[in-house]
Amino acid sequence: MEALGYISLIIVLAAFVFLHITLKKFVKNESSETLSRIDFIKIGAAVAGAAAFALLAMLGLILAQGWNLTGGEYALALIGSFVFVAGLSSLYASFGLVFYKPTLEPKILRISKIVMYVAIPVIIIFLALATEGIANHLSYPLVNRISLTEGFIDPFNRTAHYAVAFYGILIVSGAVIVYFVSDHFFFKKFKRHGILDSTFYIAFPAGLVGARLWYCYILEFDTYANDFLAVLQVWDGGLAIMGGAILGIIAGVTFMLVRRKYVNIRWAMDVIVPAILIAQAIGRWGNFFNIEVHGLEVLASSWSFLPSIILNNMAFSSTDGPAAAGNIYVPLFLIESITNLAGYFIITYGIGKGLRKWLSLGDLAMGYLIWYGATRAILEPLRSAEFEYGQSWISSFILIGAGVLGIIAFHVYDYIRKKKNMEPRTYETV
Q1: How far apart are CA 323 and CA 313, in angstroms?
Q2: What separation, in Å, do the N-terminal and C-terminal C-alpha atoms of the chain show?
Q3: Separation in Å, CA 217 to CA 51, 205, 207
Q4: 283, 242 contact by CB (below 8 A)
Q5: What's the predicted TM-score (pTM) here?
Q6: Phi, psi of 47 (to 5 degrees)
Q7: Per-residue model confidence as pLDDT tens digits over 112-121
Q8: How many whole angstroms separate alpha carbon 183 and alpha carbon 181?
């Protein structure tokens, strides 16, 4: 039965590869503006195949582990995994068609957009249902790393080295999504993809360095101050999102000023910087697996609306140990994840669209600093009863202040240009 799970998982991955090859071939065919019958069949077969074998992979996992699931749990696990992967593969296909084949037949393009937008909530809902089916049969705390020497390990294992952390995987995934979101806006303006490739290759590594340095020398200075080699041991964990965002932004802006002079840097910042909130929303789930970024103990019943897998895992803390029976730690990571995601849409579409005629270029980027700074300023004191109003909390207000000053500076600069009969750089002129 274990073999069934592994073989099915391999076929799922193969289906995604086949889907990617099919889409790539279609997108590169400049003469084709509509999907042929054979293209539909190929895409449909890839989606259906991936979903079907995802179901078999879940079944193989259940049987291999010897879990005694109820009928309802079987239904949730199998149907949830089937629809989740179907939604994920449909999202991949529709995203590729919408963003990389703008010349697509209007009817097909419209359908692809609908599929893309519908797929997102479907993925979230059915992933929750799939995990709900097996949640009460898993061991907690959940594993959070894959060690090259010990396999899957949990957050309380302090001895394993040379491990790949789920946190890092999620950070990378978030960064990739930010790239594609930003690339979409650049394509709409410059009619070509790939402008951000080099910027991404500079900004992302810089962000990782910033995240590590912030963790070591701001949050854990006493631990790393006299041990530089320990700073380099990234496999042992320790990244701070705030430091990654700051240094990543600085590196990206600097590169674009030097190598992408035809791009208005303030416009680019408004596109890219708020999208970092998406990466941060995804990255916070790394804290879930690390059983960190939580509040005080509360009754689990007060959070009973959450999926069981979250409730069960939040009964543990990497710093405070297990919670009392019937209690969990407040999942601040989840609150911040939702807040960050909401912040992106509010800044980019609520403010960016609704207040467009009153904005100066750069306002949305500064809005990111204000939003994220305010989020951290509110949530940081809730993490623990022993919370100290130190560097991390103060830096939140520095972000807010920098954002406010940046907005003022941009508006004053544009006002001066206008008084000198120079055209201000607004959304209407870029």
Answers
A1: 10
A2: 59
A3: 46, 18, 15
A4: no
A5: 0.86
A6: -65, -50
A7: 999 999 999 9
A8: 5
317 phi and psi angles, rounded to 5 deg: -140, 135
CA dihedral 144, 146, 149, 153 (to 10 degrees): 20
Residue 394 token pair: 């103060």
Tokens of 118: 């519908």
Are 331 and 310 in contact, with CB atoms under 8 Å apart?
Answer: yes
**394 pLDDT more than 90:** no
Phi, psi dihedral angles at 175 (to 5 degrees): -65, -40
What tens digit of pLDDT does each residue of 33-86 get? 788 889 889 999 999 999 999 999 999 999 988 899 999 999 999 999 999 999
- Tell me phi and psi for residue 328, to 5 degrees: -140, 165
What angle separates helix 71-100 from helix 2-28, to the nearest 10 degrees? Answer: 20
Cα–Cα distance measured from residue 346 to residue 323, given in angstroms and rounded to the nearest whole number:
36
Query: CA-CA distance, 219 to 200, in Å (whole number)?
Result: 26
Cis peptide before 141 (omega within 30 of 0): yes
Residues near 342 by Cβ (< 8 Å), separated by ≥ 6?
A: none
